[in-house]
Amino acid sequence: MAITQIYLNLPVSDLEVSKKVYTAMGGTINPDFTGDTSAQVVFADAIVVQLMTRETFATFTKRSTSDGPIEVISALAAGSREEVDRLADAALAAGGTEPREAQDIGWLYNRAVDDPDGHSWELLAYHPAGGQG
């Protein structure tokens, strides 16, 4: 059986603020899987982020959800450098933070955005053949 989708489940401190950041980065809320303690954000048919209050998230694991070292940096590819800037700026206006300056290495352009809980996302545009992003 082949993998058909990726679901990222993230604990968040303030569900409403997190929903604003993730929709600003281009996601849409799926009301069928959204409630008072959890929200499903769809970026594409195969890319889904489930935001959960820390209390709800804790019901799915025995591990601590306390702040600790970063374990993953997720990335979303956009179609152009301009789209990366638009999405990053919108996420920042919605409550995200930018932990570092944009990177432009010719074939790859990216900006980092951390959500209010410190989950790190790279918004990127690239041309693997070496073209400009």
UniProtKB/TrEMBL annotation:
Pfam families: Glyoxalase (PF00903). This is Lactoylglutathione lyase. The keyword Nucleotide-binding does not apply. Residues 2-126 form the VOC domain. The lineage of its organism: Bacteria, Bacillati, Actinomycetota, Actinomycetes, Pseudonocardiales. It comes from the Bacteria. One of its GO terms (molecular function) is lyase activity. Keywords: Lyase. Signal peptide: none annotated. Gene3D superfamilies: 2,3-Dihydroxybiphenyl 1,2-Dioxygenase, domain 1 (3.10.180.10). The keyword Lyase applies.
